[in-house]
Amino acid sequence: MCWIFWYRGKNDAVKILLHGLERLEYRGYDSAWVFVKKQSWDKSRIRAVGKVSALNWKVTDFLDAWYTQWIAHTRRATHGGVTEQNTHPHISNDGNRTIVHNGIVENYASIKKDLIKKWYRFDSETDTEVVANLLEEIHKDSKSMLETTQELQKQIRWAYALLIMHEGTPDTMIALRLWSPLVYAYNSEGEQYFSSDTQALSGYADKMIYLEDGDLIKVQWNDYTILSNGDVTKRDIETFDQKILEASKGEYKHFMLKEIYEQPAIIKRIYKWRVSFENNSLHADAFHGMGNESIKQITTVACGTANNAGWLWTYRFETLSKIPSHNEIASEYENKPFFLDESKLHIFVSQSGETADSLEVLKMLKEQGGKSFGVVNVVGSSIARMTDSGLYLRAGTEIWVASTKAFMAQSMCLLLVSLFLGKRRGMRLSKYQQIMRELEHLPSYIETVLDQTDHIRSIAMDLMQYKNFFFLWRGYQYPIAAESSLKFKEITYLHSEAYGAGELKHGSLALISEEMPTIFNLPNDEMFEQNLSNFQEIRARKGKICVIGDKRVEEADRQITIPETIDEIYPFLTAVAGQLLAYHVADLLGNDIDKPRNLAKSVTVK
Ligand code: F6R
Q1: Which CATH superfamily is domain 250-449 in?
Q2: What is the rounded distance in angstroms from the CA atom of residue 270 to the CA atom of residue 283?
């Protein structure tokens, strides 16, 4: 996954581009570059493996020059290793086309084979260089750059956001989008931008256009044309109203910690828009598209952490809303039949709204006429635009690569959806009132868990010496154990596995020993007693246990105590405890928490 930022204008382009790249750093990458161009004979690729800071000294020679074209890009390797040679932009063999690409061209291998037969040579291992040379090849038969690019659209299979510069038309930039995000933006000063993330544009552009799948845009000075399937088309021009984001960690050591601590405030913000505690009611407007009494089945679809959030609330769609529900991991679901009918609703959960696997399912579902609802953070993102209706998370920008506060917001929005549907389907009033009461206390409950950060760090000191961990669960705690285990893996780089407490005895107890500690989600719910027998099975095998629960378990080696509440609310608290545990173990191990290895903020490739 790569991130594109292109600028054309009269201001100090190097500063703008490097600033844009720094803002995109949170998305994860392994190399970065800028490309500058004054005249066809005066162009330079400045590439660096590693952090954007590695580029800073390399660009100093270009600071005073007036270059007309500037592109910057961060790359996270998909085709070919992390080398300067594989870093973009890629240039066609004749030197006339310069390409930058975000996405994966799935049929690149067969195209490359054909091009090699025609004596094209390749300096990199990337699919992008294949596109650059394919353009050169197509251009031989076609008249204009535009026609060449339209032909290219027919020949390459998704996914891409592509920027193409051609020496023959130096004032023109052509861009294409199919399944990888791309925004064209500008301001009243006549400055123009392309970016794959609106975050980089904040404070620079006032107007922006989200390109849609299949769009081709031709940008000249102060002018642009968009073509869709060969026809000139108009897209909405949005006013950029996001406050300038100066991503700062404030008093916190890492963005991860800052975002974990933001969670009580985010929950209060969600309440402000969706809940009225004075009237004990939900703001019905917020749930438009959800009121349909004919919904008889719900399937949540998502990936990774967002999938854990979707999955968690399938339990409550069943117990509170009385609607049979199940969860599907998007990358798997796209290979199964949907069995659609009028009464089935698919809920897509996503922070970025651009995750390729989820988008693929949504696209297939729409083609078959299925109903969809989005629970999405990024306003105007593809999932938000493509679903029939939905709720925005209002979690604010999530900077940290792995998700914490978005998970919390997804969980809260889905709980509210289950309450909204439940209330319309005869949910007991006493249950509804009990949940509303506990919801009101939830921000302070979370603060109680956050206040234990020093205690959790001392537990982390014990745990950091081990290499393998079980995260145990029963019932509705399964998705939370899965999420805590995922967070743990993502930043500690230690092996962990979420496992059913009742299932251990069917084989995996074999792994329990002094060397393999267990983190046991053990709230005082109706499964508490059953869980205690599994607890004893582990103790009998000398396994160390850290309990996350509200009731003191005397024999636990360590315990993170959460406030006493109800089953619907416990997951929020066990999740926060899991986040802090992962954070402290990773920090004590000295890992680079804000730039975890091999992670990207939004996964726009399949
Ligand atoms: C893990 C994480 C990922 C994302 C997943 C889906 O911490 O952040 O697992 O949850 O890639 O991304 P979105 O929510 O953007 O669809």
Answers
A1: Glucose-6-phosphate isomerase like protein; domain 1 (3.40.50.10490)
A2: 11
Helix (H) or strand (E) holding 430, with range, is helix 429-450
Residue 546 token pair? 């850290």
pLDDT in tens, 38-93: 655 566 767 666 666 666 666 666 655 555 556 666 666 666 666 667 777 888 99
Which of ligand 1's atoms lies nearest the C-alpha of 404? 7
Class level of CATH domain 452-593? alpha beta
A 10 A CB-CB count for 155 gives 14
> For residues 69 and 36, is the Cβ–Cβ distance under 8 A?
yes
- Rounded to the nearest angstrom, the distance between the alpha carbon of 425 and the centre of ligand 1 is 32
Q: Of the residues 37, 371, 544, 601, which is catalytic?
A: 601
pTM (2 decimals)? 0.72
Looking at this protein, which amino acid is placed at residue 186? Y
Ligand 1 pocket check: which of 259, 352, 360, 489 to mutate, most ligand atoms within 8 Å of Cβ? Answer: 352
Neighbours of 331 (CB within 10 A): 18
Pocket probe mutation, ligand 1, options 260, 579, 597, 603, max atoms within 8 Å of Cβ:
603
What's the CATH number for 2-239?
3.60.20.10
CA-based nearest residue to 233, from 224, 242, 241: 224
Q: How many CB atoms lie within 10 A of CB 418?
A: 25
